[in-house]
Each structure stands twice: as structure tokens, then as C-alpha cells.
């Protein structure tokens, strides 16, 4: 079937990582532009595979190129509503191709081709052909398919702009409904290949955390293949309509995650937040010193107010873990009226990158918009606090209730001995020095002890300057 493709094509290559050392080129990703798009189109020519722009043989090792994957499909039973779900499979199917790595989705894609693949004679045209075969195999309702790979900057720019319009139209449609309007939600297990204890719960108000699948997409997918990885979940009894807790959702989640998670609040980062696989567009994270919540997306390359970048934070709360104080989410969920409603919604949000904030104009309540700090205003906890005071952010009331004065925050990580505070619960003088959603400690005999939601206290903190 793949006889004219010079590399192996099989699910066993999913999970292959192509590091910089054995990378020939990078395609799309944070240093360039790119997108993937599946569309139902009755005018296509079946089996038409092409590359518009430079092929791998015309590229330079180590460089980064723009990249578009345009997939057009046709079939009697194909509905437009299925486009999003079929498109989401591009990630897995690209990764079946040995020597080709695909991350993320929509306009966030980030791909690499290995040097070994190039040496075997692999071309981008082979990727297009492999996708043509794989999509027809995975979705028998696809009767005809054509795949176009774009690598010319101008073409990719135009393609990405068009894709944005289509993503926006899909997202907008999902805003027609809210959680109360439906009796069923949907579960998605597509990411269990790498996050075995993760199940997404997709509701009208909570678009999947990858941002690529909404409630309508799930409905169409479950109708097409009720035994597939996207399936109906009867809501059952509403246990808490503010937190977003439903009896049957809890039951199904326990069943599908081998009991690892048995309770989920759809609209909160506290206690039982929605688990995160690793495909999330953004992470909501609790900032204890401000009793507020920050948001960071995967395009943000700087440090968050927690002192770590998105990549480190994602590593700590992904893989299907339920980590209190953190939850992966889609940017579209931030447009929902139920966005973290149990935590205070936007009145609890204290920081986010400016790029996200500007994309949410009209969705963040007008009276809150200017009160939320961005990376352009501040990134350290102290500076954010000053900003919040200056803007009279409602979080100030919560900060006041924390019982700390300004100096507590200002001195927390200083070298001053005065920072040692009384920890009532332990009855000794201890100071919190770090928190970690998950921390592993190797022990003898091959045993590993894992601390979840660890708070590390020390009697004394000694900061030493290393000798150069
Ligand atoms: S992130 Fe969730 S909805 Fe998106 S593909 Fe993965 S499991 Fe499905």
C-alpha cells in the first residue's frame, strides 16, 4: 500500500521525537507560519497529491520553512460538521510516517523531518500520498481525497489567513449553545495514545482543550461512528452547575481513565480541574501570592509569573494528570460565559500574554479588560501586584484576605532572614520555598515516589552565589 514511499508508515512511529541533532528541517512552528485544514469539497480530483513550493531537496539543512497541509475530501455521507474531527486526525496520521514529526493542531502545527528520512529519499510528496491513503483507511466515508502541501511563504500566508476564517466560523457556531441547552456532552479519547489517563469532556461551553473540536464536531463524529474515540455522555444529575459537575460525567471519566480520575469540575482550576493531555492551547494556573489565576498559551516564549515558561508548566500538568491549580484549556473556552465561573471568571484573572488579551476584546467584560496585567505590563508577582493596585482590580480584596502585607510578597524570595515566617500548621518557623504540581523522587530498588501538589517548606533558606 505504501510501496512507493521510501520510509515506513505505521502507528508504531507515533511518539517518535526528532531532536535538533537529527533534524533536517523544521516546518511551521513558533519560528515560522503554518496551518492544516480539512474541507469537504465536491469538486476535487481524487488522488491528486502535490507540493506547491520548495521540496525537501531544495531546502537547506537546519532551516525553518512555512508549511501548509491542505486536505480536500468528498463522500456521499460526509458532512461539513465532520471537518474539524477529521482534521484533528492529521496529527496522528502524519506521525505514522517514519522520520516525520507533527505537533499540535490548526495554525499551531510544528513539524520536523529527520535527516535519516531525507537520506532514504523521503519527499513531502510522500507525506501527501501517505495522508491520502491513511485518511481513506481511517474514515471509510471519505471516498475521494486530494492533499496539497504548501511551502512557499506567500502561499502559506494566504492559506493560513483563509484557515483562520474557517476556524473562526467553526468556533462561532459552537457559541450558539450553552451547557444547559443539551442533554448530552461528549467524551474524546483521541489523546489516550500518549496520555492514557486523559479523557476530554466537550460541552457547548467548554470546547476541547486542543481548540480543534467543539460540541457540534463531536456530535457529528459520534453519529458517524458511535464506537469511535468520540462518544456521547449523558449528563446525568447536575451535582454543581457553577463548578460544572455532573454525576454521569464523573462515572464515565472514572471508567475511561482506569479510575485515575473520578471527579471533574469543568469550570474550575481548583479541587478537581479537568485533566490535561498535552495538546492544550493554553494553561490556567493559580498564583498563590495573588490568590489569582494567570493564563499562558503555547505561543508565549517568556517566563510566566510562576518563574517558569509555558513548556515547563505544560510538562508539569500534562499527560492526563489532574493537578489542582492548573488546567489546560482552549482559547475559545475563554470566550465562553462559563469560563472558570466557579473561580470568579475574569474577576479572578490577573495576568495573561498581551496577544491573548487583545484577541479577547469583546469577551473579557469591559470593566475588567484594563485591569488584567499582560507581559507588557509586568511578569513578576510584585510588579503584577503593583499593576493590580493601580488598576483597582477586584482581586485586591482577596489579597487583603490572605492576611499578608505588601512586604510578604516583596521579600518572599529575597536573601533577607526576615522572610522566615510562622507556619501555624507545623508549629515551627518554616517558610514555603516552592510548590510543584508533581515531583518524583527516585528511591533504591527501582522504586519512584511521586508527590502530587507538593508544597516544600524549609526551616532556613540559604542562598549562595556560585563562584565563577
Ligand atoms: S485534546 Fe481532547 S478533544 Fe482534542 S483530540 Fe485530544 S482528547 Fe480529543
Task: Offer a few descriptive terms.
nickel, Acetyl-CoA decarbonylase/synthase complex subunit beta, 13 helices, binds iron/sulfur cluster, transferase, globular, iron ion binding, Bifunctional carbon monoxide dehydrogenase/acetyl-coa synthase(codh/acs), Chain M, domain 3, alpha/beta, acetyltransferase activity, Bifunctional carbon monoxide dehydrogenase/acetyl-coa synthase(codh/acs), Chain M, domain 5, 468 residues
Report what the structure shows.
- Keywords: Acyltransferase, Iron, Iron-sulfur, Metal-binding, Nickel, Transferase.
- This is Acetyl-CoA decarbonylase/synthase complex subunit beta.
- Its cofactor is [Ni-Fe-S] cluster.
- 25% of the residues lie in helices and 24% in strands.
- The protein has a five-stranded mixed sheet with strand order 16-14-15-17-18. A four-stranded mixed sheet has the order 4-1-7-6. A four-stranded mixed sheet has the order 2-5-8-3, with helices on both faces.
- It starts with 22 loop residues before the first strand and ends in a 10-residue tail after the last strand.
- The protein contains 13 helices and 22 strands.
- It has helices at residues 83-88, 90-95, 115-119, 124-138, 153-174, 215-224, 247-256, 310-317, 354-359, 366-369, 381-391, 395-401, 406-411; strands spanning 23-28, 34-40, 48-52, 64-65, 67-74, 100-103, 110-114, 144-150, 184-188, 200-202, 230-234, 238-240, 245-246, 282-287, 292-297, 326-329, 349-352, 373-374, 422-423, 428-429, 431-442, 448-458.
- The protein folds into three domains: 11-174, Bifunctional carbon monoxide dehydrogenase/acetyl-coa synthase(codh/acs), Chain M, domain 3; 179-406, Bifunctional carbon monoxide dehydrogenase/acetyl-coa synthase(codh/acs), Chain M, domain 5; 413-458, no CATH class.
- The chain is of the alpha/beta class.
- The structure holds iron/sulfur cluster.
- Iron/sulfur cluster binds at residues 88, 188, 190-191, 200, 208-210, 212-213, 277, 279.
Amino acid at each position: 500500500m505504501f510501496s512507493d514511499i521510501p520510509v515506513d508508515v505505521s502507528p508504531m512511529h507515533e511518539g517518535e521525537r526528532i531532536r535538533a541533532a537529527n533534524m533536517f528541517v523544521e516546518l511551521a512552528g513558533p519560528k515560522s507560519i503554518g496551518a492544516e485544514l480539512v474541507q469537504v469539497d465536491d469538486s476535487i480530483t481524487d488522488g491528486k497529491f502535490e507540493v506547491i513550493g520548495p521540496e525537501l531537496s531544495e531546502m537547506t539543512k537546519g532551516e525553518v520553512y512555512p508549511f501548509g497541509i491542505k486536505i480536500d475530501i468528498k463522500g456521499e455521507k460526509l458532512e461539513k460538521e465532520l471537518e474539524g474531527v477529521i482534521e484533528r486526525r492529521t496529527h496522528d496520521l502524519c506521525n505514522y510516517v517514519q522520520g516525520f514529526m507533527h505537533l499540535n493542531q490548526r495554525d499551531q502545527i510544528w513539524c520536523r523531518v529527520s535527516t535519516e528520512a531525507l537520506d532514504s529519499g523521503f519527499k513531502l510528496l510522500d507525506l501527501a500520498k501517505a495522508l491520502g491513503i491513511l485518511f481513506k483507511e481511517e474514515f471509510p466515508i471519505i471516498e475521494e481525497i486530494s492533499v496539497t502541501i504548501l511551502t512557499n511563504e506567500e502561499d502559506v500566508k494566504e492559506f493560513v489567513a483563509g484557515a483562520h476564517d474557517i476556524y473562526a466560523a467553526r468556533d462561532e457556531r459552537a457559541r450558539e449553545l450553552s451547557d444547559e441547552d443539551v442533554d448530552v456532552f461528549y467524551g474524546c479519547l483521541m489523546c489516550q495514545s500518549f496520555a492514557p489517563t486523559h479523557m476530554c469532556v466537550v460541552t457547548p461551553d467548554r470546547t476541547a482543550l486542543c481548540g480543534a473540536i467543539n460540541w457540534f464536531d463531536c456530535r457529528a463524529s459520534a453519529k458517524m461512528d458511535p464506537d469511535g474515540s468520540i462518544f456521547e455522555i449523558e449528563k446525568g444529575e447536575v451535582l454543581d452547575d457553577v463548578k460544572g459537575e455532573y454525576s454521569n460525567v464523573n462515572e464515565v471519566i472514572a471508567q475511561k481513565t482506569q479510575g485515575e480520575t473520578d471527579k471533574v469540575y469543568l469550570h474550575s482550576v481548583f479541587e478537581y480541574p479537568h485533566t490535561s493531555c498535552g495538546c492544550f492551547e493554553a494553561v490556567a494556573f493559580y498564583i498563590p501570592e495573588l490568590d489569582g489565576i494567570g493564563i499562558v498559551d503555547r505561543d508565549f516564549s517568556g517566563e510566566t509569573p510562576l518563574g517558569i515558561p509555558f513548556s515547563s508548566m505544560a510538562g508539569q500538568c500534562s499527560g492526563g494528570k489532574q493537578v489542582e491549580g492548573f488546567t489546560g484549556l482552549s482559547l475559545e473556552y475563554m470566550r465562553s460565559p462559563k469560563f472558570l465561573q466557579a473561580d470568579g471568571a475574569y474577576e479572578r484573572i490577573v495576568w495573561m500574554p498581551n496577544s491573548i488579551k487583545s484577541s479577547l476584546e469583546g469577551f473579557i467584560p469591559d470593566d475588567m479588560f484594563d485591569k488584567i496585567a499582560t507581559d507588557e505590563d509586568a511578569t513578576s508577582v510584585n510588579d503584577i501586584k503593583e499593576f493590580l493596585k493601580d488598576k483597582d482590580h477586584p482581586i485586591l480584596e482577596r489579597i487583603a484576605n490572605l492576611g499578608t502585607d505588601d512586604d510578604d510578597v516583596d521579600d518572599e524570595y529575597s536573601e533577607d532572614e526576615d522572610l522566615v515566617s510562622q507556619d501555624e500548621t507545623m508549629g515551627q518557623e518554616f517558610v514555603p520555598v516552592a510548590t510543584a504540581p508533581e515531583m518524583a523522587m527516585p528511591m533504591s530498588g527501582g522504586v519512584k515516589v511521586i508527590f502530587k501538589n507538593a508544597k516544600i517548606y524549609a526551616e532556613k533558606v540559604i542562598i549562595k552565589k556560585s563562584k565563577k
